[in-house]
Amino acid sequence: MILLETQQLSKRFGGLLAVNSCNLEVRAGEVHALIGPNGAGKTTLLNLITGVLAPSKGQIRFDGQEITHLPAHARVHRGLARTFQITNLFKNYTVRVNLELAVQARRGSSFRFWQPVAKERALTEEAFQVAERVGLGRRFEVVAGQLSHGEQRALEVALALASKPKLLLLDEPMAGMGPEESARMVELIESLRQEFTILLVEHDMDAVFRLAQRISVLVYGQVIATGTPEEIRANPEVHRAYLGDEGGAA
Amino acid sequence: MRWPLLLLVLFLLAFPPIASATGLEFYQGLLTKIMILALAASSLNLILGYGGMVSFGHAAYFGLGAYAVAILMREGISSGWVIWGVAVGLSALLALLIGAICLRTRGVYFIMITLAFAQMIYYLVVSFKQYGGEDGLRARRPEFGLFELTDTALYYLSLAVLAGALYLLHRLVHSRFGRVLQAIRENESRALALGYPVFHFQLVAFVLSGALAGLAGALMAHYTQYASPNLLAWQQSGHLMMMVILGGVGQFWGGVLGAATLSIVEEVLQDLTIHWQLGVGLILLFIVLFAPKGLAGLLRRRP
Question: What residues in A contact B176, CB-CB < 8 Å?
Answer without folding.
Answer: 104, 109-113, 115, 117, 120
